[in-house]
Amino acid sequence: MDRDLVVLVADRHMERAFKGLLSQQEKLAIRNIDYQILTHPGHDPGCRTQAVELLRPFLSSSNYAIVAFDYHGCGSSLMPAEVQSKVERLLFVNGWEKRSHVVVIDPELEEWVWAPSPHVSRALGWGDNFGNLRRWLHDRGLWPSGRSKPIDPKRAMETAMRNAPGDKRPRRSSTIFERIAKSSDPMNCCDSALSQLRETLQAWFPRGD
C-alpha cells in the first residue's frame, strides 16, 4: 500500500476541516500518517450514493478509507445511524471490509465548530472570550441553557460572524473550518460522529506502530 488513508468528503469546507483535524495527530493520539483528501463533485448525495465508485481506484493503494458528509442535504429519509450503516455495508462488499468508516455529521459540518474554546470565538470574530459569544447567542434564542451546542449550528455560526464586534468581521470561508479544526482540541468536541471518528483513527493508527 502506498498511503495510510484516503478521505472522501462532500465539499471544500469539509476538506479543510479534515485537513485541520488530521494535522493534529498528536492530540488525536495516533501515529503520524500519510493521507489524501478528495472532494466529491456530487457533494453530500454523491458521497452517500457513489462513494464506492470514487474510492475504487484507491483499493490497492490505500490501507483505509473514510467517507464523510452532512446528514442534512444527503437526500436520505433514513436516520443518520441508518445512513451510516448503509454506506458502510456498500463499502464492505466492494473491497473495503474492516478498513473503512463512514462519518455522517448530524445535522451538518457546523456541528463540529462549537467546541468551548477561545480558538472558536476568535475565528468567528469574537475575540478570546468564548463565554461572551455563548451568552450573546443565548440572549437571541440561538443557544438555550442546558444544551452543549446551538439549536441550529450553521445559523448560529453565520449569525455570530455577521454580528461580530468591531470593523473586521470574518467572511464565511473554508479557511475558517481549517483554522478551528487545527487549533481546537479534537478531544473536547462531544459530537458522536467525531467521537466515532477519533476512536476509529486510534484503532487504525495506534501510537507506537
Description:
- The chain has 209 residues and is α/β, with parallel strands linked by helices.
- It has two domains: 3-110 and 183-204, Dna Topoisomerase Vi A Subunit, Chain: A, domain 2 (3-Layer(aba) Sandwich), CATH 3.40.1360; 114-173, no CATH class.
- It is 43% helix and 13% strand.
- It has eight helices and four strands, in the order βαβαβαβααααα.
- A four-stranded parallel beta sheet has the order 2-1-3-4.
- Strand 3, helix 3 and strand 4 form a beta-alpha-beta unit.
- Helix 1 runs parallel beside helix 7 (174-183) and helix 2 (43-55) packs parallel to helix 3.
- The longest helix is centred in the middle third of the chain and has 17 residues, at 80-96.
- The two termini are 16 Å apart.
- The mean pLDDT is 95.
What is the molecular shape? Answer: globular
- Main sheet summary: 4 strands, parallel
Helicity, as a percent range: 40-55%
Radius of gyration: 17 Å
Number of strands: 4
Cα end-to-end separation: 16 Å
Low-confidence stretches: none
SSE topology:
Blueprint: E1 3-9, H1 12-22, E2 35-39, H2 43-55, E3 62-70, H3 80-96, E4 100-105, H4 118-123, H5 130-139, H6 153-162, H7 174-183, H8 192-204
Parallel strand pairs: 1-2, 1-3, 3-4
Helix pairs in contact: 1-7, 2-3
